[in-house]
TrEMBL record:
<keyword id="KW-0808">Transferase</keyword>
<dbReference type="InterPro" id="IPR029063">
    <property type="entry name" value="SAM-dependent_MTases_sf"/>
</dbReference>
<keyword id="KW-0489">Methyltransferase</keyword>
<keyword id="KW-0949">S-adenosyl-L-methionine</keyword>
<dbReference type="GO" id="GO:0008168">
    <property type="term" value="F:methyltransferase activity"/>
</dbReference>
<dbReference type="GO" id="GO:0032259">
    <property type="term" value="P:methylation"/>
</dbReference>
<dbReference type="Pfam" id="PF02086">
    <property type="entry name" value="MethyltransfD12"/>
</dbReference>
<protein>
    <recommendedName>
        <fullName>site-specific DNA-methyltransferase (adenine-specific)</fullName>
        <ecNumber>2.1.1.72</ecNumber>
    </recommendedName>
</protein>
<dbReference type="InterPro" id="IPR012327">
    <property type="entry name" value="MeTrfase_D12"/>
</dbReference>
<dbReference type="InterPro" id="IPR002052">
    <property type="entry name" value="DNA_methylase_N6_adenine_CS"/>
</dbReference>
Amino acid sequence: MTNMTVDLPLFAATTSPSTARSSEAMAMPERVMLYPELRYMGSKKRLLPWIHGVLSTLDFETALDPFSGTGSVGYLMKAMGRRVVASDFLNFSHVVARATIENNDTRLDDSTVDDLIHGGGDGRRFIQDTFSGVFYTADDLRFLDRLSCNIRLLPNPHAQSLAFAALFRSCLKRQPRGVFTVSGDLSKYDDGRRDLRLSLEDHFREQVSVYNDAVFDNGRKNISYNSDVFDIDVKNIDLVYLDPPYVPRSDDNCYVKRYHFLEGLSAYWEDMPIKQATKVKKIEKKYTPFSYRRTAITAFDDMFSKFSQSQIVLSYSSNGYPGLEDLVSMMGKYKKRVEVFQRQHRYHFGNHAQAVRSSVLEYLIVGR
């Protein structure tokens, strides 16, 4: 890990590897690496020890994570004993954070799980009718219709969220590439993995146990919201951890395109109309200014301005737009001191033999 200290307005870098190594070596709570990470674009799971090392050098009691994604960094800060406010503009990400960050004590017992699996549901068959021949087997689709209905009948919102989180992870494990962009015959992706042999019901039972183990009480009142970063109104936050989507050099950064099925499932597609002409039955893409070159720079500047009263930790990669110098300059308008921590990182998209692997420099840009 390399640390670059920037005392604005100068852009002078110094490297302190010994400080970086000692920072990363600080003990991270063991439970963090057991967090049930989703297979998710841009996942920070393997970077958590490094992120923890940087966060451990900062003085904060309350933290906001407004791009919570899979919840792993918010969960890290919860395990560090901080009060965490998590938020995401995707509903399924909000549900996961409510299950693992907001939830301090609710677990699903065996009797409840049996009732969820074997309950009669309400007879609706939207998933069966819509996704037949697109994703999963007929039995799996019937199971999803029945189970998602039974989950929504649970009176405890944390129990609902925990069950949905287990179901989301089950769906991703059962999907060969871990994304929902390919339909039809997926046998060509069958490489013998156990995950592709198990039914969704078998996966769900296993994942409930995994998520039950993730539940713990850090003695703080944590909370999760379903909100856009510019709409969330949280005051008196010591630190804001920002991991927004960024404009990549190739392809796109559309999470809805890749995870539309989970987003729809989280609300049984209520107010999420299907685009019937698409092969994989997508829902409408949600707009974010971070996805376009013409709006990204203004979006970053507005975001830094919004959180100017808090310490800012921006997670970013060298393959994104805008570039590092622009980001440091923008953050410097609102912060007296900006530090850039960087390390080499290799992202893995998919787990098949031909998976694309992208090596980048990962940054943590800290403003205070």
